[in-house]
Amino acid sequence: MEGLLESRQHRDHNTNPLIIWEPLPGSCNFVNRLTHLQACRRLNVFSPDHLELAALLSRPESGSGCADSRSEIEIRGKQLLDLLDLDTNSSLTIVIRAAEHGYLVLSQPGQASWLPSFYQPASSKVVDATGAGNASLGALSLELQKTGDVQEATSFGTTAARFALEQVGLSVLSSATVGGQEVEMGHGSGFQARVNEYKQRFKARVIA
């Protein structure tokens, strides 16, 4: 992180870029916990999945540390916040991708909420989960740059994940005219229409 910021400074680029980190699964273990915490303090968004988070926080002798329930994931998320000990000026938000549970978004202590997943695992729409996390964070990063609102950006992220889940490989895109404008379509609907559908069906659930 220091090298990246120094390189940007030498090239007269913005020295406060938006930085989102999806950690490498194999690096998420208790041995690397300290270096991950140090890196997090330079980030805008840290987004492990719930299994990576459990592995990062669990000592090897305690077992896999696999956190499968919402309550367990919340405990892990709050534990990470406590370890980071963020001040009120911190720009870091933690977005935990938790499969069928959805997304747990945490910033300052006491500020946490769940955004549900579009599909449950038994849904016939779920064909292949490969790449869903990457698609999600790609859409999240674009919307976060536009709005600065992490919850809004996460809604876009879960919508992008929905597209990725619905087929093996990349989505087949087409176009259609909607309201006099040409709209890019995937699986019969446009991206913004799916975002609107998601917002109408689901609301973020704030937790203590």
Short description:
This protein is α+β, with helices and mostly antiparallel strands.
Structure description:
The chain has 208 residues and is an alpha+beta fold. The chain has a single domain (2-207), classed as Ribokinase (UDP-N-acetylmuramoyl-L-alanine:D-glutamate ligase, 3-Layer(aba) Sandwich). It has seven helices and nine strands; from the N terminus they run αβαβααβββααβββαβ. The chain has a six-stranded mixed β-sheet with strand order 1-2-3-4-5-9, with helices on both faces. β3 and β4 (103-106) form a beta hairpin. α3 (50-57) packs across α4 (70-84). The two termini are 32 Å apart. The relative contact order is 0.11.
Topology at a glance:
Elements: H1 2-10, E1 20-21, H2 33-40, E2 45-46, H3 50-57, H4 70-84, E3 93-97, E4 103-106, E5 112-115, H5 132-147, H6 150-165, E6 173-178, E7 181-186, E8 189-190, H7 191-201, E9 205-207
Parallel strand pairs: 1-2, 2-3
Antiparallel strand pairs: 3-4, 4-5, 5-9, 6-7, 7-8
Helix pairs in contact: 3-4, 5-6, 6-7
List keywords for this structure.
single chain, 208 residues, alpha+beta, UDP-N-acetylmuramoyl-L-alanine:D-glutamate ligase, 6-stranded mixed beta sheet, 3-stranded antiparallel beta sheet, 7 helices, 9 strands, 16% strand, globular
